[in-house]
C-alpha cells in the first residue's frame, strides 16, 4: 500500500510540474517545424514606477521558459511608452524587435535549436561610415536598400550561428570593414575584429550575399565609400 501511494504521489508531482506553465489558456501560439510553442504574457511589479509586460515563450509539454522579452514598458504617471517589443514567426525563426525612444531598433532572432534552447543572434549594427579622405568627404552616405532596419533583417534572415561556436558557447562581436563600390557592390571585405569558431567566415559569407547598396555620392556623382559593420553573436545560457 505504501509503495503504491508513493508511486502515485510521484506521478502527480511530475504532472503538476510539467503543466505549471500551461495551466492557463495561452495568449499566443505558433509552430516551428513540427513543434508547437506558446506565449504567455506576464506583468512586472504593480508597485513599480513603470507598468511592464513581458512575453514568455514556452514549448508545449515542457515547463522550461525558453525566452522572456519585453512587450512594453509604460510610465504609469505620464503614460509614455519607454520601450516596446513585438515578434513575428518567419521561416521557422522567431524575430523579436525591441524599440526604445531615441534609440535604434534592436533585433533578436530565436531559432530554438534542438527545440529547447534559443540561440539568439543580435545583428545590431550602428553603421560607421569612414567615407573618403577628408578632402573628398562624401555628401550622402551609402545605404542598404530600404535602410538600416532592412539591413538588420537581411542579416538575421541569412546569418547562421556556426555549430562550433554554439558548442563552445562563443559570444562576442565580429567587426567587418568593406568597400561599397560605385555600382553599389561590396568588395574588400576585411574582418578587423575577429571572434573565431567560424563566426568570421559566416559574416563574410553573408556580406558577400547582400544585394547592391545605394552608393555614396559626391558632387552629384556616385563614389566609393567605406563602412564598418559590427555583428554580435550571442547564445542563451
What does the model show?
With 237 residues, the chain is an alpha+beta fold. Helices cover 18% and strands 39% of the residues. It contains 4 helices and 14 strands. The chain has helices at residues 2-18, 148-158, 163-167, 199-208, and strands at 28-32, 35-43, 50-59, 67-75, 81-90, 93-100, 106-110, 121-122, 128-129, 172-180, 186-193, 216-218, 221-223, 225-233. The protein has a 7-stranded antiparallel beta sheet with strand order 1-2-3-4-5-6-7, with helices on one face. Strands 8, 9, 10, 11 and 14 form a 5-stranded antiparallel beta sheet that branches. Strand 2 (35-43) and strand 3 (50-59) form a beta hairpin.
Short structural summary:
The protein is α+β, with helices and mostly antiparallel strands. 18% of the residues lie in helices and 39% in strands. It has helices at residues 2-18, 148-158, 163-167, 199-208, and strands at 28-32, 35-43, 50-59, 67-75, 81-90, 93-100, 106-110, 121-122, 128-129, 172-180, 186-193, 216-218, 221-223, 225-233.
Amino acid at each position: 500500500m505504501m509503495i503504491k501511494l508513493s508511486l502515485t504521489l510521484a506521478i502527480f508531482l511530475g504532472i503538476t510540474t510539467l503543466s505549471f506553465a500551461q495551466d492557463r489558456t495561452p495568449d499566443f501560439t505558433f509552430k516551428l517545424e513540427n513543434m508547437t510553442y506558446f506565449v504567455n504574457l506576464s506583468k512586472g511589479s504593480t508597485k513599480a514606477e513603470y507598468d511592464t509586460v513581458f512575453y514568455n515563450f514556452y514549448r508545449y509539454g515542457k515547463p522550461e521558459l525558453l525566452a522572456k522579452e519585453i512587450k512594453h514598458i509604460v510610465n504609469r504617471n505620464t503614460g509614455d511608452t519607454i520601450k516596446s517589443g513585438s515578434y513575428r514567426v518567419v521561416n521557422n525563426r522567431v524575430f523579436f524587435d525591441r524599440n526604445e525612444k531615441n534609440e535604434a531598433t534592436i533585433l533578436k532572432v530565436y531559432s530554438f535549436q534542438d527545440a529547447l534552447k534559443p540561440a539568439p543572434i543580435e545583428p545590431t549594427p550602428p553603421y560607421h561610415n569612414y567615407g573618403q579622405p577628408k578632402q573628398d568627404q562624401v555628401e550622402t552616405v551609402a545605404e542598404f536598400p530600404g535602410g538600416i532596419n532592412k539591413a538588420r533583417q537581411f542579416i538575421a534572415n541569412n546569418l547562421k550561428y556556426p555549430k562550433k561556436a554554439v558548442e563552445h558557447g562563443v559570444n562576442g562581436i565580429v567587426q567587418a570593414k568593406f568597400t561599397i563600390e560605385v555600382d553599389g557592390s561590396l568588395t574588400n571585405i576585411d574582418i578587423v575584429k575577429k571572434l573565431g569558431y567560424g563566426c568570421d567566415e559566416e559574416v563574410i559569407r553573408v556580406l558577400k550575399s547582400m544585394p547592391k547598396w545605394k552608393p555614396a555620392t559626391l558632387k552629384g556623382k556616385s563614389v566609393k565609400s567605406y563602412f564598418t559593420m559590427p555583428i554580435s553573436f550571442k547564445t542563451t545560457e
